[in-house]
Every structure is written in structure tokens, then in C-alpha cells.
histidine kinase (Halorubrum xinjiangense), 410 residues
Amino acid sequence: MTDALDSLGPPTDVSESRDAVARRLLEGVSTHAIFMLDGDGKVAAWPAPATTLYGYEEAAVLDRHVRTLFADDEGEGDADSLPEDFFAEPSEESVEFECWHRRADGSVFWATLTLSPLWNDEFHGYAAVSRDTTATKEYERMLERQNDRLKEFTDILAHDLRNPLNVIQGSLTLYEETGDDEHLETIGETTDRMARLVDDLLRVARQGNVVSDPEPTDIGEVVESAWRSLGGDAGATLTYEPVPSVSSDPDRLRELFENLFRNSVEHGSTSSRAEPDDSVEHGSTSSRAEPGDSVEHGSTSSRAEPDDSVEHGSTSSRAEPGDSVEHGGNVTVEVGPLDTGFYVEDDGPGIPDEITDDVFDHGFTTRDDGHGYGLSVVRTIVNAHGWDIVATEAEGGGARFEITGIEFLG
């Protein structure tokens, strides 16, 4: 404030009024939006810094109530912390509160607004100071998310690791009593399960880091790489409709697709996990998978190599005699674009309505041999990119996951 005063220089006229000096002061402060309210809470003065922050010209806000600057429909914050009757009587003390404010262009920002009463023998209204504290709000949100994740991990460690430890202790006691090697087998299986659980927990923890150095990513390349890396199911078909490139961590995005594909194949098919000769359809063109097939990354279709047996132009992929199928189940997984993102869906049995909100929780699973971290990892990766994800029902009744909030490149 002192710097702002110094920058004004002396009054140009000794008769310059106090109000004029005050207005020059308000014009000289650019770090915050400072404006004046009358005793009823209506805007009485709107200097240039206020226009810079809010985007409203003076004529648009003069004589309008300060509440018109609030974005009450954002569902967070509390404009109600400024009581309805606050302006009924002159205030003796300053009041400060936080809520969402709306700019002239419709965008919102988290603001700290301080109202200070102006007294000089008589009450002259309020000096209002508005500060954009969105960055602070986002940091607080990040801390809240981290605290939530820490609590989730604590719960997991307390529950998921204690249970197998109890099994090991019980089996060890039984072995000491009976000498039956069956109990040693139980101990071995349980320790293997614990090792997988620890790996899953570490994976979730690492994926929680915010993506700080994203790079342009070809979704088609990532999708095809993820599908092939699973080993897939020879009875499973992947259909890909081109999605524009995005800014992401490609390795983590690949793991997102791997987990969604694995979820579809394991829950939507009765066949074994896929072998490298999976079939992949790209739009209206598909490849008929043969044992020797190879896939070039970066294209939106499978290209025939000298040793390949790939036919283009068909609308389906068929498992050939060399394919590995134990039980003969089939599932089709589809990836396609949305207005602000993409979807992954399958034609399997889908997700019951009663558990739609639970599928992303750490440790939630409907399989006896599952750990319940695949979709949790997906959600963590999505959050790390600043995107959103919902689980819903595909048009054909299968499971559908929609990832949105993405700004496409180009």
C-alpha cells in the first residue's frame, strides 16, 4: 500500500479533495480489486483494477449489489457467510469471507473478499478488497485429496494385510500341530497374494502424483500398445474409433487403458486372458488375428507384414484355429471419442446400478480372487491428469467408462 501511495506522487492541486486522492489510490493498486460499496452494499466506485479482475466495465456494475458478483451456483463456498441483513445496519468491524465469484466472461474464481466500514464521524459505506485465491484453494483441495488417499491406504494396510497375516499365522499353527504340508501350501499362496497386494499398493501410490510434465500423446498408439501388452483374449475384439491427441503422461495413460481393458475381458468374458494374437479393429476396418500377427504402433489400423495373415475390410475379427481360447467366451471392447474426452465400453454383463459408485474404491472387487485395485488405479491416473471419470451402462447393456474434462490438441 505504501508503494502504491509513493507511486501517486503529490496531489496536483492543494485543493484536491480527499475523495479524489482516494480514487487515485484505488487506480494505482493493481494487485487486488479494490472497489467501493455504499451503505446498502451496492457498488459506488469501480476502479480499473476491479475491471481487470472481473472483466466488468464500470457502467455494468455501478449501483448493483455486491452479491451479483458471487457465483452461488458453484455448490461450494458460502456466500451465505455474508448475512442477508449485513447491510441493514452500519458495521463496526471488517468482515472477510470466501466463495466463488464470476467474471464477465462466465468463468469463475475463488476469491477472498474483505469489507471494511468507512467511518469519518459519519458512515460512508465500505471499502471492498477482492483477491483471487484460486491457487490457494486448489492447493487446499490437493492436500485434502492427499489426506483422503492417506486414510484409504491406512485402512487398506489395516485390513487387507492383516487378513493374510492371520491366515499365515493360523496355517503355521496347524502345520506345527499336524505336520500336514497342505498348510505350507496355504502359507505359500498367501504370501504370494500379499506380494501382489504390496505391488498393487505401490502402483496406486505412484500413480497418485500429479502429472507435471505432460507431452502430446497419440491415443491410437497408446490404445493399441495397451491392448497388445495384455496378451489379451483370443476371443476378445477391440474396436477403436479415432480420438484426437491429448496432453498426457503416455506411460500412465497406457496403464489406464490396460486396466480398463483387463476389467472388460475378465468380467465380460469366460475365456482365458488374451494371447499376443489378439484381434484389433480400427473403425470400420479390422484385422483377422493369426498366430504370427504383428502390430505397428502409431497407426489407426493393423498393417499386414510379410508373415501376417491380415484381411482389411471386414467388420469383425475372428479367432482362428491357432488362437488360445480355453472356454470360448467372447467380448467386444470399444474405444471412441466424446466431446471432451473418450469412452471405453464393452458388451459384457455391465455394472449393477447399486455398485456403480463403488467400483473405483480401493479394494472393491466382485471377484473372489481379485484385489480391487485396477479401477482404483484408473481413477488415480485420471485425477492426476485433472480429468474426470464416471462408470455407467453402455447402450447394449455392458460397462462403459467415460473420461472427460480433456482439452484435445489441434
The chain has nine helices and 14 strands. Residues 1-16, 270-328 have pLDDT under 50 and may be disordered. Residues 139-207 form a domain with the Helix Hairpins fold (CATH 1.10.287). The radius of gyration is 31 Å.
